[in-house]
Write a structure and sequence with these properties.
The chain is of the alpha/beta class and 226 residues long. The protein has a six-stranded mixed β-sheet. A three-stranded antiparallel β-sheet has the order 1-4-5, with helices on one face. Helix 2 packs across helix 8.
């Protein structure tokens, strides 16, 4: 079994208001076998596409290589926009060394609720995937059960939005409740392209403009939250 340990600590500042929550980067980031276009930072896989979406939305002209400059570009964007990154999976084991979420076994999760209590300005969690098995929302739902918390549906349209109330301190009166919003963004993986093709809005936009594709759809969706 391959022990897949998350290679990066959470990237969070005192004024962070939004937190990107995924699972694990591809194993090559843990084994230090990066590809030429990989960036040695959160969501650094060129084929993950998250930074490609952000780059397109903001016109950042980011570098896609192993340089320190590429890392700093991404850190500065996150700091400027008060966005943090804290994937929910700390480690997992795999029989096959790949990036499949379904291939993870003996999974250990990070204490996201504990982290939220440490950083009181965070009011939004951006899941890089939905509630399918071993996705970030799926793990988060499992994680919050031990705190007797649950997600309440806000909107069932893609991207699905939920919220939950996080008690602050020992009291349970209204003034000590903090409401956290969660947004389940469409995954940047190629496998998600099939589900996108079935979404009525995508079909409508594709019919109006045959050149409109799944990348464009994600850029449109993500632009509301980044």
């Amino acid at each position: 079994m391959f022990k897949h340990k998350h290679p990066y600590k959470p990237f969070i500042k005192k004024d962070t208001t939004k937190l990107i929550v995924g699972t694990l980067p591809p194993p090559r980031f843990s084994t230090r076998a990066l590809l030429e276009k990989d960036v040695d930072f959160c969501y650094g896989s060129y084929y993950n596409s998250l930074w490609l979406f952000i780059d397109k939305i903001h016109g950042l002209n980011l570098r896609y290589d192993n340089s320190q400059e590429a890392i700093e570009q991404r850190k500065q964007f996150l700091i400027q926009h008060k966005i943090g990154v804290c994937d929910i999976v700390d480690s997992a084991e795999r029989e096959k060394i790949d990036a499949s979420d379904l291939g993870m076994q003996n999974i250990k999760l990070r204490d996201i609720i504990g982290i939220l209590k440490q950083y009181p300005n965070i009011d939004t969690l951006l899941f890089t995937g939905g509630n399918s098995k071993n996705g970030p929302e799926y793990f988060f739902r499992r994680h919050i059960k031990k705190y007797n918390l649950k997600l309440e549906l806000v909107t069932d349209e893609v991207p699905r939005i939920h919220q939950f109330n996080l008690p602050v301190g020992l009291s349970t009166d209204e003034t000590s409740i903090r409401t956290i919003k969660t947004v389940s963004l469409t995954s940047g993986s190629g496998a998600a392209n099939i589900s996108i093709s079935r979404i009525p809005l995508y079909k409508q936009l594709k019919a109006k403009n045959p050149k409109f594709n799944t990348f464009d759809y994600r850029v449109m969706q993500y632009s509301e939250f980044f």
